Amino acid sequence: MEEEQSTREVSEPSKKSNTALIIILVILVVLGVGGYLISKFVINKVAEKGAETLIGAATGGKVDVDTSNNSVTFKDGDNSIEVNGGTWPADMPAPKYSSGKVEASTKLGSGTDQGWSVTISGTSQAQFDTYKSELGSAGWTQSTDSLGEAFLQYSKDKYDLTAVFDSSSNGVSITVTISQ
Fold first, then answer.
1. Where are the alpha helices (DSSP H) in 60-147?
2. Domain ranges of the chain
3. pLDDT tens digits along 61-103
4. Which of 17, 110, 120, 145 is most buried, judged by most C-beta within 10 A?
5. Residue 92 DSSP class
6. Global confidence as pTM
7. Could you give the CA distance from residue 143 to residue 60 in angstroms, rounded to a whole number?
8. Which candidate, 52, 103, 111, places its Cα nearest to that of 80?
9. SS3 for 60?
């Protein structure tokens, strides 16, 4: 009986110390992960501001670098350039090319003096031909004779569209401008 009581006395303090150790470890993990996430956010913001300052000083314009959506915007008075990685421009007045991967997109200017450009990879001639049909269905009309199946020129309202398929890279480039 004395042995059981001495074993119990030894076991109870070790349970308390194990619980305290677990609590300390959990707190350290939470602080470590939180610290990592906060430092990553702070480092990204510092890098964005540094890039904005350098590009702005070199160009004399206002620059906004946003790493959260992979974009860079340059503004100089009424002129602007927006470059995005991997996203189709939300305000591009053309049907979205639904296959492949958007590698880069740009938007130049504003108002009546603007244009858009998108580069897409991982597509095919058949998918490019499907896009040609989608343009017709969306009201775009062929504005000039195509230079083969890989080069298209269309117009709709005040917009001109050029689409080029490159069979060597299975890529597509689409540009939309406002007609003058």
1. 125-137
2. 1-61, 69-178
3. 666 666 556 666 666 666 667 777 788 988 899 999 999 999 8
4. 120
5. -
6. 0.63
7. 39
8. 111
9. coil
